[in-house]
Amino acid sequence: MIPTNALDPALTAQASLPDLIASRGHLLLVGNVARRVISPGPYSATKEAVPSMGESIRREVSAQGVGWPA
């Protein structure tokens, strides 16, 4: 569960960023609303990782021309 929900989006973003920076492209990370429902175990935490990671990446690379869908 943790690799699919948190690690895979991170690895995809990491692999895509050099081309996105070069082309001044857009990065879109898709999560779901399950992150807003607190449940026992790691499931909610792994779902929260995607938007948190996206915000972190946005702050890091927006000055390099990578855009974000509105």
UniProtKB/TrEMBL annotation:
InterPro entries: NAD(P)-bd_dom_sf
Gene3D superfamilies membership: NAD(P)-binding Rossmann-like Domain
Name of the protein in question: Uncharacterized protein
Organism: Deinococcus rubellus
